[in-house]
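**User:** Everyone, produce a chain:

**Assistant:**
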Amino acid sequence: MTPATPLRVAVVGAGVFGRNHLRVYRELEQAGADVRLAAVIDRDDAAAQAAAEKFGVPGFSSIEACLAGTQLDAASVCVPTVAHAESAAPLLTAGVDLLIEKPLAANLEDADRILSLAFEHNRIVQTGHLERFNPAVTAARKHLHQPMFFEAHRLSIFTPRSLDVDVVLDLMIHDLDIVLSLVDSPVREVRAVGLPVLSRKVDIANVRLEFVDGCVANFTASRVSTERVRKLRFFQPHQYLSLDFARQDLLMIDVTAAAKLDPAQLAAMTQLLQASQQPGSHPSPGLSLSKVPVEPGEPLRLEIASFLEAVRNRTAPLVTGEDGRRALALALEINRAIADHARRTGL
């Protein structure tokens, strides 16, 4: 493969996520990127053929059938989590680099199988932690220094999508991955509670993590909410940042030592400031509110473009397979803590 040769990509899974991947690959191709959408694969033959017709590519009901007649350089794996390892194995063995939707796998054994095959065949595996590519997260990283407290809320209205996993692996894992990437310290303690509400798996969960360096992170995730919320706040010495994933907004408050405001006071004041103050104003002595410039962009497009760049240049992706395993391991530890809490309380 030469630099001028378009990367031949396939999408495995023609559900909601898969169709979005198909759309973005096609958009990049039409925009002149060195990529060519080569196939769509779904074990539901009707779904595969419908997507094939829509995007004008061959459709296959199995990975093996696709590999038998199509040369591939890379693929997105967008099947249900429980089928990630099963889908990744033949592709990695055939020399195909993979972008695997989050979570990397349903369990650590499957995750290790994927990583082992990637190492054996010298293939790239990128985990699809989409929020890492959110422009607001990219902007926030530039202001990061010694974060000591995080608060994340990720709430969704109930849909029958992704019910093969619980809310921790479905929604919260986004924020777990973000915080793990921002805190350079191991997790020391996990406290968690969760409940099934509309499904047989945990639909709402609250988690408290404490890191070895003293940083604390609180997470709330729900897929049975009446509203959609995607927010992360974090505090560091003399500074507070509030990030809205959906709006791609980043609000920053700088506080002098003389202001002597604790995080709870800052959070309450921020609500007032957002409603009544303009960015750049100085609502009280020692307090400066500003809206950090964020260059807007579609996170999925940024994620796929980054994956293709890693494939072309044979470099480590921004979100590695090991990153995906680390987030998965923490999510599974949280699920164990939720189960322990349920047993103690007789739920």
